């Protein structure tokens, strides 16, 4: 089975997406960055469930996080989906997976970091 650049195989994709909480986290974070507490509410899941799924998605580079500073000076992480498109092809008896992820350029990362410190 062919892997993408981050080691994703069709089997890995299947394992990830068969889980309703993983699918829900990806869908919710595809529209806007969300905190773990917001994901708990929106996905109707427990905190440990959300954190386990978030960790697994981050291992496969499908979810990113950024640290934010709120007006009271508290830090919290916001999660955003990196998955744009997922393709699984069956070619000559073998599955090939292609995962397109969002890319954030260096200028965006610097701007987000700077805005998070203000």
Task: Give a written overview of the molecule.
The chain is an alpha+beta fold and 118 residues long. The protein has a single domain, classed as Orthogonal Bundle (Arc Repressor Mutant, subunit A). Helices cover 43% and strands 26% of the residues. The protein contains five helices and four strands, in the order ααααββββα. A hairpin with a 2-residue loop joins strand 3 and strand 4. Helix 3 packs across helix 4. The longest helix has 13 residues.
Structural class: alpha+beta
Number of domains: 1
Helix percent reads 40-55%
The 3D shape can be described as: elongated
**CATH arch. level architecture:** Orthogonal Bundle
Q: Alpha-carbon distance between the termini?
A: 47 Å
Q: What's the number of helices?
A: 5
Task: Specify the CATH homologous superfamily.
Answer: Winged helix-like DNA-binding domain superfamily/Winged helix DNA-binding domain
The first-level CATH class is given as Mainly Alpha
SS elements, strand count: 4
Order of strands, main sheet, comes to 1-2
The biggest sheet, with number of strands, parallel, antiparallel or mixed sense and barrel status, is: 2 strands, antiparallel
Mean pLDDT: 85
Strand and helix order: HHHHEEEEH
**Rounded to an integer, what's the Rg over CA atoms?**
16 Å
CATH topology tier name = Arc Repressor Mutant, subunit A
């Amino acid at each position: 089975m062919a892997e993408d650049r981050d080691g994703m195989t069709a089997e890995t994709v299947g394992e990830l997406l068969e889980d309703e909480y993983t699918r829900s986290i990806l869908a919710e974070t595809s529209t806007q960055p969300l905190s773990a507490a917001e994901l708990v509410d929106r996905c109707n899941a427990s905190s440990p469930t959300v954190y386990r799924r978030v960790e697994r998605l981050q291992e496969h580079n499908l979810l990113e996080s950024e640290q934010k500073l709120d007006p009271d000076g508290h830090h919290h992480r916001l999660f955003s989906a990196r998955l744009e498109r997922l393709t699984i092809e069956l070619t000559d008896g073998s599955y090939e997976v292609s995962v397109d992820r969002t890319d954030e350029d260096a200028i965006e990362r610097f701007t987000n970091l700077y805005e998070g410190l203000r």
